[in-house]
Design brief:
Layout: H1 3-9, E1 14-19, H2 22-31, E2 35-38, H3 40-48, H4 58-71, E3 76-80, H5 88-101, E4 105-109, H6 128-141, E5 146-151, H7 153-157, H8 159-172, E6 176-179, H9 185-194, E7 201-203, H10 215-221, E8 225-228, H11 231-250, H12 263-269, H13 272-283
Length: 287
């Protein structure tokens, strides 16, 4: 059983940072994270330079997940699956691709395609039946993938409808429930009460709809899977703006080296010492 699955079974808190490519995943793993979330929001921004409004394809996300797992095989990866990219049959294909890529789990939501980031305005959701059919297809065709049912109905149809959808997903046997974008601690308490005994997801989006709480505070409310999907890409974007701005203004970073990691530090992060050691080993063969 995976570390992620062990934590879910033991009802232990898991904090998942958002990653979007092999480098971000490497840094997350080297920092100490064992599980990360491949964020559709972050991948759309980094891979396409576009907002999270349903422009990413199923194959593109699967390709990013595969490259992340090749680069950091020990990092368990929960991969955003948006709406499954179609109906129940398309969802089966999504499950197959995610498992081939080495994903540990997926999030499957009830938005109408093309979807939007859960903290954007203007979302729409499909019928209960459409969403539940895709969840059932995912459950029927997974081998080991952990299935999280995400509903965005709170912003569209109200919290009561979101809770009813969540209960129906629970009854199908999904592994975790994710009611997106509760707007207050009171709403989070209502979710935890209505879904007592379920593994619940909290989505901590900086300047989003939901109050930002610590993992300890969320655990007290009943939320054990904590996703921080966009903080790192927001920080990386700010760093890029700062460094490119400095370079454009001054023509050099000579007097601003505090903005960058050292050359040797970067090559260590991406594994140059191991490659050099391998080169030396094979150069000695036959001598």
């Amino acid at each position: 059983m995976s570390h992620f699955a062990d934590c879910m079974a033991a009802k232990a808190t898991v904090l998942m940072p958002g990653v979007w490519d092999p480098l971000s995943a490497l840094v997350a793993y080297q920092t100490g994270f064992e599980v990360a979330f491949l964020s559709g929001f972050a991948v759309a921004g980094a891979y396409l330079g576009k907002p999270d409004v349903g422009l990413l394809t199923q194959a593109e996300v699967a390709d990013v997940a595969r490259r992340v797992k090749v680069a950091v095989p020990a990092l368990e990866l929960v991969v955003d699956a948006d709406t499954g990219y179609g109906n129940a049959i398309n969802t089966i294909r999504t499950v197959e691709l995610w498992e081939q890529a080495g994903a540990t789990g997926l999030f499957l939501e009830d938005q109408l395609w093309p979807k939007k980031c859960g903290h954007m305005a203007g979302k729409e959701v499909v019928s209960r039946a459409d969403w539940l059919s895709k969840l059932q297809a995912a459950l029927d065709h997974r081998s080991s993938l952990l299935i999280t049912a995400r509903t965005d109905a709170r912003a569209v149809l109200g919290l009561d409808e979101a809770l009813e959808r969540a209960r129906m997903a629970r009854d199908l046997g999904v592994d975790a429930i994710f009611v997106e974008a509760p707007a207050s601690i009171d709403e989070m308490e209502q979710i935890a009460t209505a879904l007592d005994g379920c593994v619940l997801v909290a989505n901590m989006v900086e300047a989003g709809k939901t109050p930002l709480l610590t993992p300890g505070e969320l655990a007290e409310l009943g939320f054990l899977l904590v996703v921080s999907p966009v903080g790192a890409i927001f920080a990386a974007t700010k760093a890029l703006q700062t460094t490119y701005g400095t370079l454009h203004e001054h023509g050099t970073l000579r007097n601003h080296l505090d903005q960058v990691v050292a050359f040797d530090e970067f090559t260590r992060v991406v594994g140059l010492p191991g490659i050099v050691a391998s080169e030396l080993r094979y150069q000695s063969v036959g001598r």
